[in-house]
Amino acid sequence: MPHPLLVRLGRTRAFTRLAPHLLPRCDLAVHRLTRGRWVPSSLFVPTVVLTTTGHRTGLPRSTPLCAHPGPDGSWIVVGSNFGLPRHPAWSTNLLHHPQARLTAGGRTRPVTAHLLSEEERNRHRHRIRAAVPVYDTYAARAQRDIRVFRLVPHPHA
Known about the structure:
Layout: H1 4-10, H2 13-33, E1 47-53, E2 60-69, E3 75-78, H3 89-96, E4 99-104, E5 107-115, H4 118-123, H5 125-131, H6 135-142, E6 148-153
Antiparallel strand pairs: 1-2, 1-4, 2-3, 3-6, 4-5, 5-6
């Protein structure tokens, strides 16, 4: 469970302005240095690195994301984009190329992304809020349907 101070900070506009530029860069740098074993954001919320295929370039794109693990090995990732009005690029990539790679705890595995319907988002609401504790604030600020994906690992991977 994230610290209440972090939840309060995550609701501020200053955090929304700075975090999209600072947090991913810091997380990716440390992720590379530790060979995929750790990202700083995991001190506060469960964090994974998702590698998608760019829908225009076809190149691999790695992004640190808040995520929630499920008992079945799946992960929930939320395209909140810190409450910004546009969808994050990684979510658009998943719509075009649902096959991706997920790195968590130093282990990388192939996954297939499934965009959740509104009914499925309601059913997984507790997991969404566990991944992004300020989800409701971001959803209100973004004024768009936030994309939520369930990442299912490939069998025998």
